[in-house]
Amino acid sequence: MDIAIVGDISRSMKTFHRNKLLRHIDRLIDELEVSPESSHYDFITFHREAKVHNNFPDPLFHNEENLKRKIREQII
What we know:
- This protein is an alpha+beta fold.
- Helices cover 39% and strands 22% of the residues.
- The protein has a single domain, classed as Rossmann fold, CATH 3.40.50.
- The protein has a 3-stranded mixed sheet, covered by helices on one side.
């Protein structure tokens, strides 16, 4: 399954909201898993413009730890 996650990183997202977003994303990844044979994720942020941070076929992000680290770096 391919899953795209779009996260708001504008100034309207306070620390509380960013942490809440991260918790929800972590739970989603835990529940639906990530692996070369399972779910693949694409992470996109937006502020003034949208930016894609990784792509579905990138094997680096078929690993839960790498995926969560990349998402955390972009949100915090």
